[in-house]
Amino acid sequence: SHTVQWMFGCDILEDGTIRGYHQAAYDGRDFIAFDKGMKTFTAAVPEAVPTKRKWEEEGVAERWKNYLEETCVEWLRRYVEYGKAELGRR
Question: What residue numbers bound the domain in which 30 lies?
Fold first, then answer.
């Protein structure tokens, strides 16, 4: 059996800057990572090169950039507000 792990998320820094990340591992080893600024993927191992090429050709980078800068940030702000409301009740 094999294991694929995905990690992605976003941060809103105090100065309002948004950071986003998306990376994957295979069997506990780094496999591929997304560079949001460059809209490219970095293959951590030679086996990831075909995936990198395919995703870049299919426009996956643009979709991840949009997700990390828009959807992820929207949900993060929503959860921050939920947290503030919950803390206000205590």
Answer: 4-88
